[in-house]
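Hi all, long-time lurker, first post. I run a small reading group and we've been trying to get comfortable going from sequence to structure in the token notation. Rather than ask abstract questions, I figured I'd post a concrete chain and ask someone more experienced to write out its structure so we can walk through it together at our next meeting. Sequence below, copied exactly:
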Amino acid sequence: MLRPGRRRGAIRLSDGREEQSAAPSPRAWLQAQRHLAGPWLTLAIGAAAAGGLLTIFQAWLLATTVDAAIFHGADLRQAQVWLWPLLGVFAGRAVLAWLGDQAAVQGAVRVKVDLRARVFAHIQALGPRWLAGERSGALVEDLIAGIESLSAYFAGFLPAMALTAIIPLAILIVVFPMDWLSGLVLLLTAPLIPLFMLLIGKGAEQINQRHWQELARLGGHFLDTIQGLTTLKLFNASRREAQVIARISDDYRLSAMRVLRVAFLSSAVLELFASMGIALLAVFIGFRLYHLSLPLPDWAALPQLGFLQGFFILLLAPEFYQPLRQLGTHYHGRAQAVSAAERLLAILDTPLPDRGPATAGLAPGGPLAIRFAAVHFAYEPGRPALAGADFTIRAGERVALVGASGAGKTTVVNLLLGFIRPDQGAVLVNGQDLSALDLADWRRRLAWVPQAPRLLRGTILDTIRLGAPDAPLARVREAARLAQAADFIESLPLGYLTPLGERGAGLSGGQIQRLSLARAFLRDAPLAILDEATASLDPESESAVQLGIDALARNRTLLVVAHRLATVERADRILVLEQGRVVESGGHAELLARDGPYRRMVAAYRGAP
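-- Answer (accepted) --
Happy to help. Here is the structure in token form:
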């Protein structure tokens, strides 16, 4: 999210000063998303405006009917000339109201779907390195509740704001020719409603921002607690953590109550001013209707007004203030949307890793040769992860990368996966700079088996097909057989159609790892990267996974990050990393013959209990 001490949209100059960039404010950004609603928003405003104009006609028909019945003695048969059109107006307003609501909802849905896809795509482009510094719960709130809160803005506030400019103006145009005094009362009292709405809204917006911060904090903490529930139970810390969640929940409750208090206060103020305007207008009209038969001096004369005109204007008065009241009601939806937009902008404004345009492409087919040419990389200044790493992986070679924790093994993998780029030096693939290759095309040539594979919810078939969704079942079965996973899959009641729980719930670690290997086999990529693929496995599972790795190594380049001797010994060559550079390279027997870091690592491993 936003870093302390740095304004969003600010650019730091070489002399240390900051210059504000043209990054949009949350309000301007929200306005700029109107086009995503397509014609639906225009249709919603048009239907609501047409319904408002029908209201004026409805008031005239009703006033005419009452005037004819009271002052002209019209009976029911004579009044039908106005009652039937009045019934049609009622039906027309109902249809237009339904159409306007449906169109507004459809427009808001289109905006939410587009924004959710855009934010998710931006998070994907930022990659795991950025994601590691964020709280998953807060991001989930942004993608779900944050974007969902925009519905009130696009389906409620924007149509209400347009109607506020259309309906009162139309009523004034009708009223002023009939009675300029009534029109003047409406014109002078109308600005009081948006004025106080803005005054209250400024405070409401700040409260909403704090409310969203509390929600993000609660969501992040709650997700962390759920994910660590087993650990909390085992360390008898679940009750203490429940108290922390209760305290955070109470903070969120108080924040929500503050928002509601302001919302109710503003609604009461808006209703008060609308009621005062209607009452003032009724007094003026009633006073003049009462004095129609009384002689008054010229200086006290008021504009003459008949019952029909007066009653018609009184019927229009609530409709005049109604759009203003609706705008006030939806103004809090706008405040929530602005708060959510600020968090979404913080994500979308995060600059993507600069890869530059793809200028080269790899020839199809065949194993790949990898070269790290004096690569330097640091996640933060003063703490280098790689300091001049220089090594080569020949095409079709099986290479094991070993070293102590923090030596730079994960950084090498992240560089090859395209999540980060070297600060200095270059990663070459078949002699071409990796940073100049198309990233999507490069990743299609990769198969990755991590230490803790992520199995998404779905069937075993869906899990294996993750990198090749259209692969036929015969290829999936062959991949499972090569990964030593076919036996346990076919022993399940539903076989490949067995549904998996979150993170592979119901499967052992070795079974999950073999499914991950099956994914790599089905991908059939020329470069396979295994990151501690046999870590935390029992001997039987490790043996099965090792057989799968041996099969995977055929006819492709294989890079294995490992500590287990069984994995390292099978490698054609072993690279030993220390402090971000390769200090030894050679076969298992060759490195054991030297008195170097690898020999000491093996001795420590064998001496471990």
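A couple of things your group might point at:
Residues 397 and 557 are 5 Å apart (CA to CA).
The radius of gyration is 35 Å.
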